[in-house]
């Protein structure tokens, strides 16, 4: 991030930092949780399709292995 951009943010947040930081942390953690959930979901789908499209006779056993 360029230095002049940082100064702009510092000026914007100078008056009400604590409140905005709390809000930003809450928003960021929410976004992060959603992202992790989606990533986990996508990874599970990929693994699931590999297991079922491969030469696996007993998918449940492959998943538990």
Detailed description of the structure:
It is a single chain. The protein has 65 residues and is an all-alpha fold. The protein contains 3 helices and no strands. The longest helix has 37 residues, at 17-53. The protein has a domain at 23-65.
Task: Give a quick rundown of the structure.
Helix content is 83%, strand content 0%.
Describe the SSE topology:
Elements (H helix, E strand, L loop, with lengths): L2 H11 L3 H37 L5 H6 L1
Which characteristics define this entry?
65 residues; 83% helix; mainly alpha
Cα-based radius of gyration, to the nearest Å: 22 Å
Strand percent estimate: under 5%
Low-confidence parts: none
Number of helices: 3
For the terminal residues, how far apart are their CA atoms?
A: 46 Å
Mean pLDDT: 71
Helix and strand content put the structural class at mainly alpha
Could you describe the largest sheet, including whether it forms a barrel?
none
- Give the H and E element order: HHH
Shape: elongated
How many E-type strands? 0
Helix content bin: over 70%
């Amino acid at each position: 991030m360029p230095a002049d951009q940082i100064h702009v943010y510092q000026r914007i947040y100078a008056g009400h930092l604590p409140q905005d930081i709390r809000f930003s942390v809450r928003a960021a953690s929410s976004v992060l949780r959603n992202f992790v959930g989606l990533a986990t979901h996508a990874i599970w789908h990929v693994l699931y399709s590999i297991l079922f499209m491969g030469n696996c006779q007993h998918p449940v056993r492959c998943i538990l292995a």
